[in-house]
Amino acid sequence: MENICSLAGTGMESSLTMLVGVASLATIMIISISYMLGNVLSNPKVTLWAKTEIVQLIVSLASIFIIFVVLQSFCVVDFNSLHSLTNVNNPVQMSGNLFDAAEAYLLGAANYTHTILEIQRYHQMAFNMMLMRGRYDCIYGALFCLFGNAGTSSSPYSWVSVTMGAMSVVFNTTLIAYISSLVALFILFYATSGFALFFLPLGIFFRSLPYLRSLGSLFITIVFSFVIVYPLILSIFYLSTPILFDYIDPAILNYSDPQDVVDKGGSGDIFLSMWDWGDDDYSGEFFNSKMDSLVYQLGGRAFIVGVFIPLIALLGTVASVNYAAKLLGEEIDLSKIVRLV
Q1: What pLDDT band is residue 267 in, cutting at 50, 70 and 90?
Q2: Is residue 225 a contact partner of residue 317, using CB atoms and an 8 Å limit?
Q3: What share of the chain in percent tops pLDDT 90?
Q4: Contact in structure between 185 and 103 (CB atoms under 8 Å)
Q5: Residue 190 reports pLDDT greater than 70
């Protein structure tokens, strides 16, 4: 991913610095004109407003300076070396900064949930194949069926219909987890692409205009929250990937290729099984019944890594918008931001 750190040296810094300087100069001009008009018109309210805006401009520039310093720190830190603090081996060995660590977590979550989806899809196909199998047992052997319809039909795997319902619920939950991890990854790509930083000059300018200070504060706090807080929370969970992305038993990975279901349960086998009055244990061919419960456990783990943790990061980011805005002297309607997200 080409994030803010990889864009260093491409001219983005100079362009952004120039825009911040232009916005600051425009703000100073507006404040100066307002101060002069206040003195000419003998309007103390306009004069007081101009003096107040000088302080607000200093606060805005200080906030942007802090954002730049924190971003540089995030780009310099070797986050991969921090995994030694967890006393476990990190399965995602990589050298990178904090933004790379946040990306690594979401990519790992997407790959992990996708692997679980393949296993669950295999089991769904196996259950469907087993449910199709019926058997016709002839009385006194298959020879008597040649002279008439003398026998009983049975569906030895009818119990699968109950299991299929539970598997469908788990599969849909895992699918939501996979989509959720991709959406969180898209938000991270957009937030750390560098484009969000260009909201900072707009924030400086709008904070100097009457009735638009809240909008300017919102622009600055959104940059702070989604460019700093959001990757920071995800990178913290990256340290726990050895536990969150716990290994998947290699034995169950042998039951993840849908083609195996087709090969093991072809139409010819179904036809022959209708005349098989002996043991018909196809469950041992389609999947390992001892690991059937593991599929449901993996579905729950996929929900945690793909939905729960990205949601925590997103909610923490949205909440930080409100608290960061208070530091700028403005109250932000958090409910509207939540509905927007």
Answers
A1: very low
A2: yes
A3: 10
A4: yes
A5: yes
